[in-house]
Amino acid sequence: MRIKEGFELQNVCGEHIVIPAGEENVDFSRIISLNPTAAYLWENVAGRENFTVEDLAKLLLDEYEVDEQTALEDCKLIAERWEEVGLAEK
After folding, report:
1. Measuring CA to CA, how many Å separate 89 from each of 30, 44, 63, 70, 79?
2. pLDDT value of residue 30
3. From the CB of residue 41, how many other CB atoms can be counted at a distance below 10 Å?
4. 3-state secondary structure the chain
5. Mind listing the pLDDT tens digit for each residue in 37-49?
6. Total structural domains within the chain
7. What is the mean pLDDT of residues 44-61?
8. CATH for 69
9. Largest CA distance in the chain
C-alpha cells in the first residue's frame, strides 16, 4: 500500500486536513480530516514506496501505549478507510 500522489497533510486551525495538490485531485465536495493519531501515521508513511498494516501498527506501538492486537485492528481500519476515500492504493 502507498499514499497516492497529489495529497498532502496540512494543519489548518489546529485540524489535520489532507488536501489535494494539483488540478487533477481537486474535489471540494469533501474535506478529509485526520485525528492526531492518523496524522502521525500519515506523516510517517507519506513518501514511502510501500507500507503495510503491520508497518502502521509498529509505528503505533513505538509511539503510544497500546497492545499489538489493538494496534493491528485499528491500523487495518485506517488503511481500509484511506483506500475507500482514495488517499491510498495497493
Report:
1. 19, 16, 25, 23, 9
2. 64
3. 23
4. CEECCCEEEEEECCEEEEEECCHHHCCCCCCEEECHHHHHHHHHHCCCCCCCHHHHHHHHHHHCCCCHHHHHHHHHHHHHHHHHCCCEEC
5. 999 999 999 989 9
6. 1
7. 96
8. 1.10.10
9. 41
Cβ contact 82:88 at 8 Å: yes
Segment 64-74, tens digit of pLDDT: 999 999 999 99
Question: Rounded to an integer, what distance in angstroms lies between the CA atom of residue 6 and that of residue 13?
Answer: 22
Nearest alpha-carbon partner for 72 in 55, 85, 88: 55
Q: Distance (Å, rounded) from C-alpha 28 to C-alpha 19? A: 9
Residue 27, domain extent: 2-89
